[in-house]
Write a structure and sequence with these properties.
Elements: H1 3-8, E1 17-21, H2 28-40, E2 44-46, H3 58-67, E3 71-76, H4 91-101, E4 106-111, H5 127-142, E5 146-148, H6 151-168, H7 185-194, E6 203-210, E7 215-216, H8 219-225, E8 232-238, E9 244-250, H9 252-259, E10 264-283, E11 286-307
Length: about 325
């Protein structure tokens, strides 16, 4: 573990240097939301905004600042970022690698691209997009990642996650916080059932026994929920609360859902999804278009799938 942290364990540490790593131009409003949250927690925020004019290469300076911190927060949007001369990875990727080399306690946040509209200029294409996808796959394997939508959503997640992490490493947050409690998954799902438009894009963890057929998702549902037509599937599940939901999967997740054997208990991460499409009904007076609501849970990751344990009668 990081040497500075080892020296201070057990002491009162109201100020904890935290490195915030991300691409910059596309995520400025998100970085500001994170800075606001960390300021409320009275930690020291370090990131590219605070480097100033200093000697040494940008890469050397970035990695030096990472080494001066006790916690790493990584925010990953839809850009891989610039690759410094002489390197084969972006600056953001290099910062993440350095934090992991130092074994810094890390919180990882990935934008929920299916439920957060993005400007085309903020979406990387080509080789950068391929590198970003590979990096995100690596992040999801190494960490328990959190998917965020708006800057306000990211701020709420930081306020929820950072105090728990600081407690784990023996640090203290100065002062008291009057923060709203994060709703439970069951509460989010109950709210979503009643008011799907208001509670769309919320992240939840699901537990269910897979016992239904997996089918190709129709074009109307895909269009309404922002899924790729022809690369998405759906099935029905009954959660532990007894409520029935339709879940969707896209591409790799779709393939994983298709491969699930029956009678396995599944833990998965998903987001609530709401959309509207126009249904065309044919009448004696010709076609009539009516709005149709589509809702469901889009699975982002299957955490585990284990055989259902049969309890003795």
């Amino acid at each position: 573990m990081h040497s500075d942290l080892d020296m201070r364990v057990g002491e009162s540490k109201p100020y904890v240097p935290i490195f915030v790593g991300s691409t910059f131009a596309d995520l400025q409003s998100y970085r500001q939301a994170v800075r606001d949250a960390l300021a409320q927690l009275e930690t020291i925020v370090r990131g590219m905004e605070h480097f100033g004019s200093r000697p040494g290469s940008p890469v050397d300076e970035c990695l030096r600042v990472v080494r001066s911190c006790m916690v790493y927060i990584g925010i990953f949007g839809m850009r891989y970022g610039s690759v410094p001369e002489g390197h084969d990875r972006s600056m953001t990727h290099l910062e993440y690698d350095e934090a992991q080399r130092l074994e810094l306690p890390s919180l990882i946040y990935i934008i929920d691209e299916a439920n957060q509209p993005l400007l085309s200029k903020n979406i990387e294409t080509g080789l950068g997009a391929e590198h970003l996808r590979a990096l995100k796959d690596q992040l999801k394997k190494r960490h328990i990642v959190s998917f965020f939508t708006t800057p306000e959503d990211l701020r709420a997640r930081i306020l929820h996650d950072v105090p728990a992490l600081l407690k784990e490493i023996g640090a203290e947050v100065k002062g008291s916080l009057d923060l709203p409690a994060m709703p439970t998954d069951a509460e989010v799902l109950q709210q979503f059932k009643k008011l799907p438009k208001m509670f769309t894009g919320r992240q939840v963890t699901l537990e269910f026994v897979h016992d239904s057929d997996v089918n190709s998702a129709d074009a109307e549902a895909c269009s309404a929920l922002g899924l790729e037509i022809g690369a998405s599937v759906f099935t029905y599940v009954i959660l532990g609360t007894g409520e029935r939901f339709r879940i969707f999967g896209e591409r790799d997740v779709a393939v994983a859902l298709c491969k699930l054997p029956k009678k396995v208990r599944v833990h998965a991460r998903a987001v609530t999804a709401f959309g509207v499409y126009q249904r065309v009904d044919w009448t004696d007076d010709g076609p009539v278009s009516n709005p149709e609501i589509e809702t469901g849970l889009i699975v982002k990751e299957i955490i585990s799938a284990e055989p259902e344990v049969q309890r003795p009668a």
